[in-house]
Amino acid sequence: MPIVKSPRLKHWGLLTLFSAIFLRTACKRFDSEQRNSDINFAICTSAITVIFGPLFICSLKYAEYNEKLNIVTRGLFELVASACLLFCWCIVVGILEKHNITFDANGLILDANLYYFSWLSLVSAVMLFFHNTSGFFNNEKTGDKTRFILWVSIFTSNIVLMSSSIPDDGFFDGCAYDDVDYCKRLFFGAMLGACTAIVSFIILLAYHRNLDINKYCQVELVFSLLIAICYIFGVFAITTDGPGSMIGNIYYSAWISFILTITLVIDCFHEIDNESIKKRFGKGSPKKLETADKNVESPVKVEKQEA
After folding, report:
1. For residues 253 and 153, what is the distance between their CA atoms, to the nearest angstrom?
2. What is the distance between the alpha carbons of residues 34 and 28, in angstroms, rounded to a whole number?
3. Domain-by-domain residue ranges, the chain?
4. The dihedral of CA 67, 68, 70, 72: what is its sign?
């Protein structure tokens, strides 16, 4: 059976391209003496991506040519690699701004290539992870695709919000002595991002366990409503006289998470199963009555045909 061309190949290509541009810019701007642990982590993430990208691209094309999967393209190895790269790029996007590498104290972009290509690498890693999970797990049994994409996007944006909201010296050391109200808003942003990311991760695990997630649409609706209520208060607390008042990762990730959560609530309302709700309240289903009528009418038609 011929192997269908995978859309993951183009995502690996884009991720490799954006990571290579980021890697070249970072190495050219910071020499070995200027690099700290954050810059080294960003450079290592982009370098690993540049190494793994061509490996998977060649393996995917070789599998298409031979019409046979190999150990690299069989699924699990590529899924783990894309998940690790996604997590690392989420951390990179957060620490670059937090330590004033891509932004200065006034919210001005210091290096456009580092900022934009780190975000482009993150978006490519998200799309790659989505296609890997859809290919590795049976996509027809994972429920509605729209909600799966929304949960992946919410998980990613909240990882960025969490990593960008953690101060260098912690919440209870240097940060608390500077501005108590600012630190409270910063702590709220970090906790909101962490809790939402944990909930999103649990929901994604349910998808990956081949459960019919449409049966648990009510659970998704409850969690999405709780997250939306927290973000209604949180997005204004974070972006109004808070850490996200200036343009940056905290500002973007907070508003993106809020918009995605509202979209998720609307989609859950749209996909809610009305029949299961009627059964819980003891109301009969009209479909059963129609089926019973058809069963009663069918012998009559058979008698007429025999006559």
Report:
1. 10
2. 11
3. 1-136, 139-279
4. positive
